[in-house]
Amino acid sequence: MGQCEAVWRELLPGQVYVVDDDASFRTAIERRLKKAGYEVATYSSAQHLLDRLPSEGVPGCILVGWGRDR
After folding, report:
1. Do the Cβ atoms of 60 and 12 come closer than 8 Å?
2. What is the pTM for the complete model shown?
3. Residue 69 scores a pLDDT above 60
4. 61: which of 3, 12, 14, 40 lies 20 to 30 Å off by Cα?
């Protein structure tokens, strides 16, 4: 790992929460984000995330799959 990459990884605080009903999409995004150095948690629905979201104010980002009903 290069010096620039090491510094970048130190600047990645918190957690990325991925919400999508497509399991294969969640897995693919999770793998990419983890490879980039992020901590990742995946959820199949927004309610599932809300039921388990930490309340202690941990910094993070939520990625939500948005699409049309099938």
Report:
1. no
2. 0.70
3. no
4. 3
